[in-house]
Amino acid sequence: AGSPQSLTFNLGTLTNGNTTNAAAETLVLTYTVRVANIASNDGNGAAAGTLRNNAAHFEWTANSVTQATATVNAANIEVIEPQLSIVKSISDATPNLGDAVTYTLTVTHSASSDTDAFDIRLLDTLPTGTTLNLGSISAAGATILANDSAGNTRDLTLDDLPFGSTATVTFTATVTSDVGDIGLALSNSVNATWTSLAGASAFERDGGNPAGVDDYAAGSTNNATVVNPALSVSIDNGAASVSAGQTFSYPVVVTNDGNSPATGVVVTGTIPTDRLNFVSTDAVLPAQFQGGQ
Predict the structure, then answer these.
(1) Helix, strand or coil, per DSSP, at residue 134
(2) End-to-end CA gap in the chain
(3) Closest to 280 in 3D by CA, of 254, 249, 244, 245
(4) 207: number of Cβ within 10 Å
(5) Are 36 and 2 in contact (CB under 8 A)?
(6) How far is CA 1 from CA 5, 18, 33, 46, 205, in A?
(7) Segment 209-221, tens digit of pLDDT
(8) From the CB of residue 94, how many other CB atoms can be counted at a distance below 10 Å?
(9) What's the CA gap between 186 and 92, in Å, rounded?
(10) Rounded to 5, what percent of the chain is helix, strand, coil?
(11) Model's pTM, two decimal places?
(12) If you average pLDDT over each of 5-19, 67-81, 160-174, 229-243, which comes out highest?
């Protein structure tokens, strides 16, 4: 593959039934070739891309003498390729427990691209600690050919991406509500593949072997961290026994073991008013409390 090929048309004996020299007679031969999916047909190398040329000449015999035209060259053709890039983003990189977050996939043509891309498959599995909302998947800038998403795996195929255009895919996921998952890293990667031709073809270039000629593949990674306050309360009357009329304190300690500040905190205590009378309260809020210590 990739070596020059010689194509010969043997037309046998041709008889010209019109010998009027006032008008030239023309013989036209048309043939179709296919651009091979081989390494030497890389359209994203040099700035001008890969150029291919075709030459032809015509031979005939007259009066037992072989004659021929000069060899002529067709205009160069340039091998062009689609090259895409993808970016995955999240609406909140520090979501709280139970939050709904929106993921956005943005697919664009990279600087080395110079033609349309087809059958763009976007595949990713959301990380532990999130739940994909299957009904939330939508696309803009391209038509969804297939949606094979299931469970926590989003598997989408777009029809095409014309040269110079952009497609976006959005979907939502719900963050875990498990307090034990505070601080959980939500790392997630999306993989994109595409093809050089519309529809299935055994001859097209695709993303099946990124290390070889079928290198139509790109990816993006997104990171987030679950944050949330985690409050606990302890109380101690500070004394084992007291006398009638004596005052004593109930130290109430609120601890934030989470990784984000707690706001609007209200501490409610109930005292038996038939035996105790409320006197006063003092609150000490150290600066580090809001820091989650």
Answers:
(1) helix
(2) 67
(3) 249
(4) 19
(5) yes
(6) 9, 43, 14, 21, 15
(7) 988 889 999 999 9
(8) 14
(9) 11
(10) 5, 35, 60
(11) 0.80
(12) 160-174
